[in-house]
Specification:
Layout lengths: L4 E7 L4 H7 L4 H5 L2 E7 L9 H22 L13 H12 L3 H14 L7 H10 L4 H7 L3 H16 L7 E4 L2 E4 L4 H10 L6
Parallel strand pairs: 1-2
Antiparallel strand pairs: 1-3, 3-4
Helix pairs in contact: 1-5, 4-5, 4-7, 4-8, 5-6, 6-7
């Protein structure tokens, strides 16, 4: 019998590295006896500051383009003004309704695969509908002050455990930062005896 392990996931929909992770991170749930403790972030939380991001952008875009080519997925960056806060709040509704995987995949594809602005309520409603959510309920959730407040709480939790970037996956005291650390996460879960038989 495998050991059940919680994996805390800090995620910001505006991060292209979260887009990359979204293509494989849910496979962890299929391969291991674990669950995600979902901790979405909003705004600039978990990402480089606007000043630093401006300098990093050309190199980061090259890097992400290479990753997308390797994974065989489209890469069409969204407008630079895209705000991920609504998407993060909406993901809490998706989690509550058992549609988190579908929501994350659809929203990240709309944003990074199609280059759409996920701060736009119509883009959110379209992606939510494809993910199996009621568009009206999602539209209410994305601007719900209580859900938006949870995003800020998640950033405080991230800082408390030493997380400084997204995506980050935390198991106990071990922090796995980046889309390219999922193999290390899988190895750690195997060592903990969480592999499904």
């Amino acid at each position: 019998m495998s050991r059940h392990v919680p994996v805390t996931v800090f995620f910001n929909f505006r991060s292209p590295y979260c887009y990359l992770a979204s293509k494989s991170m849910f496979g962890i749930l299929d391969r291991f006896d674990c669950h995600f403790e979902w901790r979405p972030l909003g705004g600039w939380d978990g990402r480089s500051s606007p000043e630093r991001a401006k300098g990093k952008l050309p190199i980061a875009r090259q890097d992400v383009r290479r990753w997308c080519r390797r994974l065989g997925i489209p890469f069409n960056p969204p407008p630079v003004t895209t705000d991920p806060t609504r998407a993060g709040a909406g993901s809490l509704l998706a989690e509550q309704q058992g549609r988190l995987r579908e929501y994350v995949v659809e929203l990240m594809h709309a944003e990074w695969g199609e280059g759409r602005d996920i701060g736009d309520i119509n883009v959110l409603r379209d992606a939510g509908r494809r993910a199996g959510l009621d568009p009206a309920a999602l539209a209410a959730a994305v601007d719900d002050p209580a859900l938006r407040g949870r995003l800020a709480e998640h950033m405080q939790q991230a800082q408390a455990v030493g997380v400084f970037g997204v995506p980050s996956f935390v198991v106990g005291e071990e922090v796995f930062w980046g889309n390219d650390r999922l193999d290390f996460l899988a190895e750690h879960l195997t060592e903990l005896g969480a592999a499904r038989a």
